[in-house]
Amino acid sequence: MSIGAVIVAAGMSSRMGDFKPMLSIGSQSIARRIVSTLRQTGAEEIVMITGHNADALERHLEGCGLTFIRNERYATTQMFDSAALGLNYLKDKCGRILFTPVDVPLFEASTARALIDSGAELACPVCDGKRGHPILITARLVDGILAYSGDGGLGKAMAACGETMIEIPVNDPGSLRDADTPEDYKALLGMYEKW
């Protein structure tokens, strides 16, 4: 069963002040780091949803073997709308799909592998009692998730799809750490430097 991945990178990074996907973590950008980690898990087809600064990001990731899908309405839509573009694209190409926003760059490949190896239809990592990323979604659930029309975004759509989210315990604080603000980014860098 082939593995695909969706990385949502369409947002405006307004709270960060800088364009998140191209900020550095060590010797790589946030976006390149996530792509590299997903490749280590065996993800064959990786889709990145772009929007704000799409041209620059797509040039930055040229040669990484990604499929880019643009959310042309990124300024007026939510993350769920971007996720839906990627999930819809992959649902007939891959049996299992890993999903992550671009601002969670430090999850470990072993965490994604644990989700895949669990055999669950819908799964997320749990570290220190908190849910993190990436999220594993089997292709058969995608149509049900995309049919959701209420509030609450992807989380509520997954809760309404008829499958229970299986929590996979991991020792991976990076699966919880996102970079929404300059303070978050500084904390991410601190975590990375301790590795």
Describe this structure in words.
Strands 1, 4, 5, 6, 7, 8, 9 and 10 form an eight-stranded mixed sheet that branches. Strands 2-3 form a two-stranded antiparallel sheet. It has helices spanning 30-40, 54-60, 79-90, 109-117, 142-146, 153-159, 182-193; strands spanning 3-9, 24-25, 28-29, 45-50, 67-70, 96-101, 122-127, 130-131, 135-138, 166-169. It contains seven helices and ten strands. The radius of gyration is 15 Å and the shape is globular. Helix content is 32%, strand content 22%. Strand 2 (24-25) and strand 3 form a beta hairpin. The protein has 195 residues and is α/β, with parallel strands linked by helices. It has one domain (3-193): Spore Coat Polysaccharide Biosynthesis Protein SpsA, Chain A (Alpha-Beta Complex).
Helix and strand topology:
Blueprint: E1 3-9, E2 24-25, E3 28-29, H1 30-40, E4 45-50, H2 54-60, E5 67-70, H3 79-90, E6 96-101, H4 109-117, E7 122-127, E8 130-131, E9 135-138, H5 142-146, H6 153-159, E10 166-169, H7 182-193
Parallel strand pairs: 1-4, 1-6, 4-5, 7-10
Antiparallel strand pairs: 2-3, 6-9, 7-8, 7-9
